[in-house]
Amino acid sequence: MIEVSIKKELLSVDGKLELSIDMNFEDGEFVALFGESGAGKTTILRMIAGLEVPDSGRIVVKNQVWFDSQKNINLHPSKRKIGFVFQDYALFPNMTVKENLTFALQKGDDAEIIDELIETVGLKELINRYPSQLSGGQQQRVAMTRALVRRPNILLLDEPLSALDHTMRHKLQDELAKIHKQFNLTTILVSHDPSEIFRLCNRVYQLESGVVKKEGSPSEIFVKEKISGSFKFVGEVLAIESCKPVYLLTVAVGTQIVKIMATESEREELHIGSRIQIVSKAFHPMIFKIDST
């Protein structure tokens, strides 16, 4: 059982923010922290890792107390068996891949874990390369592998894939799922991507203004209806053309640019830059498979 019951006063762009978190979940779960920027997600990871100190509360991992404000317990970060993966890789540029992995070993650790992980994750062809000779996806694979060297009790992931392109993100999501299953590793992921959370996680904590607003499975958090009768998209108006008796809107929806028709009454309140919601009936959608390259 993992218990994270902590409080800490933070400074946000809007002033003081009281972070008050109470989470309990089982060993081996894949947990997501989801919410807007500034809600306290990364701070939670840093407090679990011992890189920041809560004002009060308890952190208990596998019956070992890592932090207890009442009993004045605050286990040093080096004694907490955690793996931490950041968005920016944090590899040593003057070390090869194998040297980066070996550096994570502590005195008394079994060095055989390095070769085991290299084989498991498929890094054999990269072991003598330096970070500057690796792609972003390869660097993040090395960073994830390094986080496993100490056989952690918890793997902490702070938006580790957000800087990668769509194809590489999917590949590394598959690798994360494989690692989680193979090592039965309790994992906490900070992510803004609902699709990523759906693929990887079994539990979601949705944070808002420093507190847990919702808790549940990805379906319970993100899907409002069991069977949706419509699709809803949010977009930004880029251009408006008159094609009487209707208007043609050019709209940015995510990374795509689409053109849709609008009636004169719909057009009246719109201008370039307006944010709009597009609703389309979904009972008879046309679905086409996109082949990955």
TrEMBL record:
The yes or no answer to whether the keyword Nucleotide-binding is present is yes
Every ABC transporter domain range: 1-234
Q: Which GO terms describe its molecular function?
A: ATP binding; ATP hydrolysis activity
* PROSITE patterns tied to this protein: ABC_TRANSPORTER_2
Pfam family membership, one: ABC_tran
Record keywords, A-Z: ATP-binding, Nucleotide-binding, Transport
Q: Which PANTHER family match?
A: SPERMIDINE/PUTRESCINE IMPORT ATP-BINDING PROTEIN POTA, SPERMIDINE_PUTRESCINE IMPORT ATP-BINDING PROTEIN POTA
Q: What is this protein called?
A: Molybdate transport system ATP-binding protein
Q: Which organism is it from?
A: Hydrogenimonas thermophila
